[in-house]
Amino acid sequence: MTELLTLNEECIPKLPRHAKLRFDEARKKWIINAPERVFELDEIASEIIQLVNGESSISVIIDALCDKFEGAPREVISKDTLSMLQSLADKGFVII
Amino acid sequence: MSELEIKQNNTIEVKSKTLVKEKLQIPYAVLCELTHRCPLSCPYCSNPVELEMKSKEIDTETWKRALSEAVKIGILQAHFSGGEPTARKDLEELIQHACSIGLYTNLITSGVLITEERLKKFYDAGLDHVQVSIQDTDPENSEKIAGYKGHAKKLHTCGLIRKVGLPLTVNAVMHRQNLHNLKSMIDLAVELDAERLEVAQVQYYGWALKNQTAFLPTKEQLDNATEIVEEARVRLKGILAIDYVVPDYYAKRPKSCMGGWGRQFLNITPAGKVLPCHAAESLNFLEFDNIKDKPLSWIWENSDAFNRFRGTSWMPEPCQSCDRKEIDWGGCRCQAFALTGNENATDPTCEFSPYRNVLDEPLSNVGKEEIPEFIYRKINVRKPLNGIGHNSNKSPKS
Lengths: 96, 398
Hints:
The complex is a heterodimer. Chain A is α+β, with helices and mostly antiparallel strands.
């Protein structure tokens, strides 16, 4: 049986086989295909999800985002990243 | 992030911050009805009453071309359905082709014909997800509803699906004769390690309309079910997602059927006809273009059937001045036509519809009438002129 996953910065997130990230040329957007649904990612979500590779911890992902978006406070980026990934984890589309 | 939830049972729900108001949308999904052949004969089958014979089915190459054309018009997901799609011997080839061109693939099956070996082939071909229908948790009632002794096999197949490594959705059509087992259906979905449970409702057109009295739930059953789902959703958060829509007979506003006619979805029948929804052939005045004759892009843009109810200009009052007209897009045309004989009628499920009484009347009798025997889905074989016809009618086996 599946168990509820609560993410923290130590976790190393990845997408399960059945959640497929790709850039959709027709819509000019990053999307995740999942069973019976499609997630259309906004700019922030796209930046986060492209760093999810099954090797980097959430903390590393946040640091990378801080480097890319200089000036944005780490705590804000951390909060956004954790909440975005958690919302996918709640539906089983992000695993560790 | 916006989430588009593509539900079976005729519903597409858009959870998006902005509604794009262009006339022609990019479709999200194609439902490939590979065959109407099926060992089951469920009396609420969504297939048309006039089922296609095997001899009319389009071939592998035509399906592959259709899938390639689907990608070109921006389609992201392909659902392989039927009938029973595993009755087609070329299913693995079609899955493989769909995956190789970037489509997300979903198999919608009864689960009664699949071996572990074939499931592995589907997995290796790239299949992303499987949905299995379960008619009830009580084996005897399950088999009575399906008209086929396959309950144990279905559960076994669900186990194999998880063993192979594919995610599983359990699809449970719930109605008057099985809603009392909703709790155990939720437990079963958890036990089977499904990630989703679709508590689907019977839509009353085609076969289901013939069996309406047998399926319409009582208000009490429904309220009880809603309570059970709400409790389970909280308890099982992150473990099992439960999709549940109130059956529209008991709703006050129509659902956004297919996310709007010709907006997000198209359906290809076993014979290659391209439909805006899988029940559209019940709108018997429409003519449908065939993938054998025309490219999918042309059909999506130009087919009369797609343009007939696209947008809002076809709508009568009170829809025309309703602030929800671009939310529900006029509801379900098939049900409206089946129940009122008027294809433009305001969906009778709407509380403002002048036809609301066509729903309220059967509802007022629910629970008072005796539950009738099922009229099972079957292929109606016309005898050839010489009178020697093979009879492939499936009679219920229970």
